[in-house]
Design a protein that fits this description.
alpha+beta; 8-stranded mixed β-barrel; two-stranded antiparallel sheet; 27% helix
């Protein structure tokens, strides 16, 4: 009996090893498949986006950036960072809120806003299921950046896609190279002039959407400024509106890396 059991152990081990190899092989295959499908889907959406007449590399707008007046004193059409066919894009992305773009980085994606903060964690903007998910605005935020703080979430993908590059704002040199991110809507190009980036707990005050008083908001801004990993070129005041970008970080359990930007019209 013992000899029979001993003889069977190598076979059991081999079967277990084979089963594990099949399991992990299937997971790797599924991950690669989803990554390829995600990339193809985002490339399809990007077909509706073209470079605009502005380069998107200017630090701050100057007098020459103001719209010119035509022969009858009517301002000509304002130059745009990106030329986006919103009508066509909305046919593919019903929950479209805008397009987020940071020059010379991976960030150039549609932003959606769903009925909750779960659906777009594992669905692409076109509604197809995918582990890469979408960049999505907090479902509690009001339209038109009406809240003091508008939140946009995105995954930290090992491939470097989505919001993976946000953690690079822990480095001053990276901030210096990318101090502005653009949020482009059908009506307006907005600038997110970054003023703070740091690691936060998932339940921290970084995720507060609205404040009862101007003083409360001013205190929140000051604490965000003090926590920043980089020294910013700009500061935000209580009269401003903020957009916060959030992704996973791995320095502790449920850590997040957040980047705050002062919202201004481009």
């Amino acid at each position: 009996m013992r000899k029979a059991l001993a003889a069977g152990i190598p076979a059991l081990l081999a079967a277990a090893s084979f089963g594990a190899a099949v399991f992990f092989g299937a997971r790797i295959y599924d991950t690669c498949r989803q990554d390829m499908e995600s990339e193809a889907a985002y490339e399809e959406m990007a077909q509706h986006v073209r470079p605009g007449s502005r380069t998107g590399t200017e630090d701050m707008p100057g007098p020459d950036d103001m719209p010119m007046e035509g022969a009858e004193g009517i301002p000509e059409e304002k130059e745009r960072i990106l030329d986006i066919d919103f009508a066509a894009l909305k046919e593919e992305v019903p929950d479209l809120a805008g397009w987020l773009y940071c020059p010379d980085t991976e960030i150039s994606y549609p932003v959606v806003q769903g009925q909750d903060n779960s659906y777009y964690l594992d669905h692409l903007p076109d509604g197809s299921g995918n582990r890469n998910g979408s960049l999505f605005m907090d479902c509690g935020n009001r339209e038109g950046f009406a809240d003091e703080n508008t939140l946009v979430y995105g995954h930290h993908m090992a491939s470097g896609k989505m919001f993976a590059c946000l953690v690079s704002y822990a480095d001053q040199a990276y901030y210096e190279a990318h101090p502005v991110i653009y949020f482009i809507t059908e009506e307006t190009d907005y600038r997110l002039e970054l003023f703070s980036g740091y690691t936060a707990a998932v339940a921290s005050e970084a995720y507060t959407l609205r404040f009862s008083t101007e003083g409360e908001f001013a205190g929140w801004l000051e604490r965000a400024r003090r926590r920043s990993d980089f020294v910013p070129k700009v500061q935000a005041g209580a009269a401003d509106h903020v957009v916060t970008l959030s992704t996973c970080a791995y320095s502790f359990q449920d850590a997040r890396y957040v980047v705050h930007g002062r919202l201004t019209e481009n």
